[in-house]
């Protein structure tokens, strides 16, 4: 029997997790410290030789719980700084997360090995055997803890009232077209790359490094163009049109072209008539997306029909 393994899922770009962001990082490492401390005190998962201990077992547990918390805090603080400094390299995937978590666990294992002389009487503290033992224990316990926390977070997030749209009614395109056919002149960093755009034709825009892919629909024909401009710069020149919404770090969507909305573990997926491509709505933008949709729907229903 063949085992199917979806590799694409590991490399698919996702939002940078909120738990690693600066505003939540201290809370994250505090939770990790508490869980590890309770785990070590209550279960004593690893072999303990009290005759070799230089200090009280409770102090040793506190030290082993504090080490990964401190390492994670400074590691992701540095990572957040580098991500902010190099805006073009902000992509994130499950593979990225597993790699960074693995580096953190390896660092914790090495530091745990280096402090053995301070907490244990053992002539072989500086041996390859104990280096391997500390690194192995960190990976075994760390991987179990990581997936335990991920499952717990998924459970609590699923219980939150995020006001999702379960019954989606497509907006009327006529409400957009009533604004006229005024072209927008979009300025880029290089004048020769400036271009004009009919906002009524825009389905969505997708960030691709320092470029964006613009999907437009004219006379039921889908067109994809690559423009040299960042998505943030492009969005700032469309601010006067409230039909456009930045639903994801890498996507901007025209609310009037959305035909269907489905829910997944990352948030929502938006579908369109003229393309099989889907646009994600990140969990951080769910409430804002729903609020704008309800506002546009209310405006549409209250507008007089001719």
Automatic annotation (TrEMBL):
Keyword terms, alphabetized: Membrane, Transmembrane, Transmembrane helix
Annotated ranges, domain HTH LytTR-type: 194-295
Transmembrane feature ranges: 25-43, 55-76, 97-119, 139-156
GO MF term list: DNA binding; phosphorelay response regulator activity
Pfam families on file: LytTR (PF04397)
Protein name, entry field: Transcriptional regulator, LytTR family
Organism whose genome encodes this protein: Pedobacter suwonensis
